[in-house]
Amino acid sequence: MSVRDRLLACFVAVLWGLNFLAVRIGLDYYPPVFLSAMRFVVVAVPVILFVPRPKVPLRWLLVYGLGFGVIQFGLLFLAIDIGMPSGQASVVVQAAAPFTMLLGLLLGERISRRQAGGIVLAVAGMSAIAVERAQDAALLPLVLTLVAAFGWAMGNIASRQARPDHPLRFALWMCVLPPIPLLGLSAALEGPTAGWRALGDSLTSGDLTGPVALLYTALAGSVVGSGIWNTLMKRYEAGTVAPFSMLVPVVAVAVATIWLDERLTLWSAVSGAAVVLGVLVGTTRSRAAREAGPPPAAGRPPKAPAERGRMLRRRPPGPGDTGPDQSDGPASAVQNTQRS
Predict the structure, then answer these.
(1) What is the structure's pLDDT at 238?
(2) How far is CA 340 from CA 47, 86, 166, 226, 328, in A?
């Protein structure tokens, strides 16, 4: 994974970490399911009018909208509203990473021992934070947050399988799907007019805190964050990108400490450092792996030595070549994307 793409993945983690603060603020103004619906409505209306539909199989767009949109955000917002602290929610929802790895393995993707070791270390750090913060959490919010994490994993795999030519269009069109089911759930659980009254009050009261929090969750999370994330999921296997989501709780806990007066203990600091270290280990290939060239794409068997030799004889080395064969794998995909 290139340095630039690692930085982009870290940037998404910061956006999504701050999103937990925005959600906590927004829930002071709007009902939870209605808030999750409106974060998609804000984006869905201009998308339908101005953005061409991406050329991807409809089934993957539907799975992405159901998992990443309805399940993840609907249940996560509800969990935070009924008692899950935002910092702890940011930790528990990172179960999406191992869920993604499991689903990726079922689809034929592979992870190296180094990646697995990094995941184990990061999960250990995440679990340590969760244990410390789970003292006062009820069972239902925890279960809802875990199911929300599985929805995120569904979205990751759907994005990987869809391989959209325009990842940002794919992320934007995903926002068209969740509003109807979420608004239906809001009407059933919160009342048909409760959310709309809250929205009207926030727009006419002169206090823009609620609307700003709503716009942040919609634009920073859906448009910017998901667009970059989908681009990375297209270029690399799910097991390479997913570990970066474990940086989200580090950001969220730090923000909660500053803005929500949550106490940061030495245990939390050490556990957060373990998460960061695990991500770095899990997403950095060893020197031997780098010298061997990029890994084969998911579902594609590695080339035999004789076949690699024939390819080398057919293609003369160019001035930018630094290894025996650079015609396959994620690195080539990144270069092709940059050229287009």
Answers:
(1) 65
(2) 23, 40, 11, 20, 17
The closest of 306, 316, 338 to 327, measured between CA atoms, is 316
The two tokens of residue 283 are 């997403």
Contact status, residue 276 vs residue 10, Cβ threshold 8 Å: no
Give the model confidence (pLDDT) of 23-70 as tens digits: 999 999 999 999 999 999 999 999 999 999 888 889 999 999 999 899
Which DSSP state fits 93? G
Q: Please state at what angle helix 194-204 crosses helix 179-190, rounded to 10 degrees.
A: 100
Please identify every stretch of the chain with a pLDDT value under 70, giving residue numbers as ranges.
133-138, 238-239, 262, 264, 280, 282-340
The closest alpha carbon to 113, from 263, 258, 295, 272, belongs to 295
- Contact between 152 and 67 (Cβ < 8 Å): yes
Q: What residues have CB less than 8 Å from 213, skipping those under 6 apart? A: 22, 23, 25, 26, 29
Judged by DSSP in three states, 110 sits in coil
| Rounded Cα distance, 93 and 61, in Å | 22
CA angle 56, 13, 203 (to 5 degrees): 85
